[in-house]
Structure formats: C-alpha cells, structure tokens
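User: Teach me something about this protein's shape.
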Amino acid sequence: MNKKTASDATETENSETTELQEAIKLALEAAEAANDAASEVSRLQSETSAAAARLDRFGARLRPMMIGLLVGAGVSIALGGLVYFKTLAEMRRTSATQIEALAIFQESVTELNGQLDAVAGLSERMAKLEGLSNENRDLVMAELTQMSEQMASQLGNYSDTAGNLQSQIATTLTERVDAGTQTTVEAMKAGISDLQLALSKMIAAAVTSTPPAANTASKPATTAKPTPKPRTTTTRKTTSKPASKAEPNPFSYP
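Assistant: First, the predicted structure itself:
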C-alpha cells in the first residue's frame, strides 16, 4: 500500500510538472505573438506616417498648380465671354447696316416699278394714238420718241444707281466683317499670350518655392579661410561678384 501511494504521488507530481511546462510554453507563444503584433503595428504606423508625409508634400506642390489652373480657367472664360459679346455686337451692327441698305434698295426698286408703270401707260397711249390721222402721226411719234428717250435715260440712271448701291453694300459688309474678325483674332491672341505668361510665372513660383532638401544636406560645410593681410601699396579693393543663377525652367517638373 505504501509503495502504491508513493507511485501515485510521483505520477501526480509528474502530471502537474507537465501541465506547468505546457502553460509556460503557451505563455511564451502568446508573448511572442504579442511582440510580433506590436512590431507589425509599429511598422504599419511608420509606413502610414511616411505615406501621409508624401501626400502632404505632393499636395503642397500640387496646390499652386491647381490655383493656376483655376485662375487660367477663369481668365479663359472671361476672355471667351468678352469675345462672344463683342462678336454679337458686331453682328447686330452689321445686321442693322444690311437692313438699312435693303430699305434703300427697296425704295430704288419701288421707283423703278413706278417708271415701268409709266412706260406701260405710254404703251397704252401709243395704242390709242394709232387710230389718229396721218397728219398728227409724225408729231405724236416725235413726242413719243422724245419721251421714250427720256424714260430710257432715267431707267439707265436708276440701274446704274442700283448697281452702285449693291457694290457699296457688298464692300461695306465685307470691310465690317473683316475688321471684326481681325480685332477678334488679335484680342484672342493677346489673351492667350497673357494667359501663358501668367501660367508660366505661377509655375515658376511654385517650383522655386519648394527647393529640394537633399542637395542642401549633401553639401559639406565650408572651411573658414584666413583673412588676407592689407597691403599698404595699393588703395583699390577688388570685389568678386557671384555668378548669376540660371533662371528655372517653368515647364520642368520639380
């Protein structure tokens, strides 16, 4: 009985030791998992911070360009509206001139129709005078010939006047349209050149406002040079001018 009791106690102690070892292993594994999770979280935080910093730098560079684009769009819209309203005013003026010319031409046509009616009346009179006697026929024919010549000369004058009016109307309309087109093209060219100059200045200002930090960090510190001793023989002072920096290209990406 005593031997059985001792063996049972030994087995109990062995089982407790095994359970304790397993518990320690589980605790160590849990600690390792926690350490891995903490390192992963810290890595994610550092990557997130770096990405946020890159986004901030990109936004700082992109902001002036967006402002320039918005300003350019506003200027383009304003110039487009100005050109549109100016062209509309020129078209209205040309339409008014054309209406006046058509009114004058209509008056000329009305007068010509009146002369044609008079000629038709003369033809009727000639038909009535055919029944007169032979004694009055020569006088009537001379009078009719004179009246026909007068009417022909008047009709020629009216036709010449109508032709001159048509040529003057066509010349005036052509000159007005050419002048309006030329002024519109010049205004558009001036607006486009001003817009390109403004965008170039804005992009150049955006590029020069963010200098790269790598170039300034990689330059070594300059060593101090000893001051030269003054000479007693000469009184002139030589000053060295720094070399002028090249102007940045506004169309190059920083």
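Now, about its shape. The helical segments are 2-129, 134-209, 213-218. Residues 12-209 form one domain. If you'd like, I can walk through any region in more detail.
User: That's plenty for now, thanks!
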